[in-house]
Amino acid sequence: MAQADNRMPHEEGPGTEAPPQRDLGAEVFSLSRLLGDLLGDVSDLLRQELRLARAEAAEALARIQAGLVILATGLLLGFCSLLLLLQALVAGLSRVWEPWLATTIVALATAATALALVWLAQRKLRLKAAYPRRTVNEVREDTEMLMRKMQ
């Protein structure tokens, strides 16, 4: 029959080895270094995301500026065309129709052209176009990646 082993789990004896000694100082240093590296990486990541946000804001501003130029051009052309058409077309149509009817037709045509240009400018100036989609997506992905690494 086998004899029962009455030794404690950490006792020295034949067939048992002492548990390895852990160097807590090295582990604390290693952990603090890892945390420092992680904070440095997060800091770098935030700087990169801010650069991306600035670039997207500059692109959005350029689109808004282009929209404003189109709007100003449309308004100016609308005004000029109103004046010219009222002058030329009313004179020409007054030979066929009553002057009041000729003036009304010319004014409606000019207004339709101006409205079309203003509508085009409004499409360029939508606030949705200024939303930094790529930056938001990148930050969301980076946050999810950090959360997965922390688990």
Structure, described:
The chain has 151 residues and is mainly alpha-helical. It has one domain. Helix content is 75%, strand content 0%. It has three helices and no strands. α1 runs antiparallel to α2 and α1 packs antiparallel against α3. It is rod-shaped and about 115 Å long. The chain starts with 23 loop residues before the first helix and ends with a helix. 1% of the residues are buried.
Kindly report how far apart the N and C termini lie: 50 Å
Residue fraction in strands: under 5%
Tally of DSSP helical segments: 3
Radius of gyration: 38 Å
Content-based structural category: mainly alpha
Helix content: over 70%
- The number of distinct β-strands equals 0
Name the shape in a single word.
rod-shaped
Poorly predicted parts: none
Number of domains: 1
> What is the H/E order?
HHH
Q: Let me know the average pLDDT.
A: 79
Note the main sheet: none
Question: How do you describe this structure in short?
Answer:
Keywords: Membrane, Transmembrane, Transmembrane helix. By secondary structure, this protein is an all-alpha fold.
What key attributes describe this structure?
single chain; 151 residues; mainly alpha; 3 helices; 0% strand; rod-shaped
Detail the topology: elements first, then pairings:
Blueprint: H1 24-93, H2 99-124, H3 133-150
Helix pairs in contact: 1-2, 1-3
